[in-house]
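Morning, I've got a small favour to ask if you have a moment. Here's the protein in full, and shout if anything looks odd to you:
***
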Amino acid sequence: MSSNLAQPKQRNPGKYVFGPCSFTSIKGVEAHTRAIRNRYARGATIDAPDDVAFLADLFACNVEANEKSGKGVKHFYWQKSPNHSTDCFWVARVEGPPTDFGLAACIRCIGVLNRLSLRAAVRVQIDAFRRQRLSACDTHFISDFSDKPFPVDQADVDHVPPFDDLVTNFFSERGIDLDATLLTRSVDGQSDPAWRDEALIDAFRALHSLHRLRLVSKRENQSDIKRAARPAAEPLL
């Protein structure tokens, strides 16, 4: 294949176009990548023209495509990652060792990837709060939102004020545009990304540790709390 990656086709709103294929949902893209893997043995070169065109366009959309492609791409293949259980597509490069790439970094924008990574950065704190609150519970807990009992397997953790507000304020105060500046860099064969600025993320974790958390039900966190936060409708005259 050419050492220069093809540029992805222009996408219509709500449509993902890679090579000869178009999809109306991320699930469709995910299903197609699984189908490609199923057509090839592990480590085998992916060589069908339509599959190559699909992967070339997909890879070109990766948030680190320029970094990862180096001086060009020889071919694609799939392989189990040595450090986590998922399957990854890999790129054999013209120069240098191969590099892997995940689907999320190709179809999610930088802002979404950053926010997902920041949630992962404070997951230990959130899980510790959940364990501490449930340690004295038997089968049910009392929601901090509604004061109603729920089964412990329905427990979820909510932020007050919302997590997105904490993220927005922290990074805007530092002049960092989360929709344009990727906070992480991928590490080949590793599911968790590495932070580009560890001190910055340590400061974010420190602030998060002071943030108010509350134990609520999953249903409340997914719907009831959001509805309660909406401004009341103006009365009709």
Remarks:
- Confidence is low (pLDDT under 50) at residues 1-13.
- The first helix runs from residue 26 to 39.
